[in-house]
Design a protein that fits this description.
Length: 309
């Protein structure tokens, strides 16, 4: 059974509309571009809810061609071992600002520096723009002299799906792969075919109708089964060790469970954690309650192990 504190945090997040003096959850017409812009604004304004930046973490901006990125480093850390962080946002929102504090939690817990980057967003830049940008950033790291074996991918939600899609693209192009990858609450199936998309719709924290809409904005006209956009439909052999987290009470639960099962059958070293009664991207809320804290500790230990720290 989930902890009392975990259930309380989940209840508050599920009913966060009350804090805006709204008695019902807002119904968003995701087909409207203005709705996407409004959602982006809400995400940016709510970035502080995931905690403040630790004083011992240093942030340095860098441009990779036209892409904005940030080095997020523990004091005195070098850049020879790196977390490459793929931010979430359903491919339609997200930024370094919105994910800086979240990324810093993994940096602090592992004492491994991170490169957090901004990829082009849909609907202005649909698939494959995000994949192209991710490949560019990874190759830039290699050009900086960072060994692939000294890089671990970490991504959440849409960023988790992008992280997995990037691994597949690198494998298919014959580029050396990173040491390992962590994906928590990843989007792996843009068809939204998993049972959890129906059975968990009422309890999931994601806004109603968002999953199907962002799939259409990101890759709808190109097909929902493109392997780099929907990694569940790819051949999964040859991937590095994976650690996947999902909440039991989120619509993306089956995106994780089905992908993990298929990867394991393909011979991939994959570890799956489904948090009982947990919600979308719950590890990012550490240290608010025990389940999130345990997940954060395990993820950081996984990163350190595969980077030889």
């Amino acid at each position: 059974m989930p902890s009392l504190r975990g259930r309380l945090i989940k209840f508050l997040l599920q009913n966060r509309h009350f804090f805006s003096l709204k008695f019902k959850k807002e119904i968003i017409d995701w087909s409207q571009y203005e709705a996407i812009l409004s959602f982006r604004k809400q995400v940016e304004e709510g970035a502080g809810r995931f905690g403040k930046m630790p004083k011992e973490i240093q942030v340095s901006p860098v441009y990779i061609d036209s892409l904005y990125a940030e080095w997020i480093l523990p004091a005195g850390a070098t850049k020879d071992k790196i977390i490459l962080y793929f931010h979430g946002g359903g491919y339609v929102c997200g930024s370094c600002h919105a994910h800086r504090a979240i990324t810093a939690k993994f940096v602090k817990g592992s004492q491994v520096g991170a490169l957090l980057f901004e990829y082009r967003l849909a609907p202005e830049h649909p698939y494959p723009a995000a994949i192209e940008d991710s490949l560019k950033v990874f190759r830039w790291l290699l050009d900086q002299g960072v060994e692939p074996s000294n890089i671990v991918f970490v991504g959440d939600s849409g960023g988790g799906g992008l992280c997995l899609g990037t691994l597949l693209a690198l494998r298919d192009q014959g580029t050396p792969l990173p040491a390992a990858a962590v994906a928590y609450s990843p989007i792996t199936d843009l068809k939204c075919a998993g049972e959890s998309h129906r059975t968990k719709a009422k309890v999931c924290l994601s806004p109603e109708g968002m999953a199907n809409a962002v799939a259409k904005h990101y890759a709808g006209d190109k097909g929902y089964e493109l392997p780099y956009a929907s990694p569940l439909y790819a051949e999964l052999q040859g991937l590095p060790p994976l650690l996947i987290y999902a909440g039991e009470d989120e619509i993306l639960r089956d995106d994780s469970t089905q992908f993990a099962a298929k990867a394991k059958n393909a011979g991939v070293d994959v570890t799956l954690r489904v948090g009982e009664g947990m919600f979308h991207c719950y590890p990012a809320t550490a240290p608010l309650f025990p389940e999130a804290t345990q997940a954060m500790h395990e993820i950081c230990a996984f990163v350190k192990m595969h980077l030889g720290k």
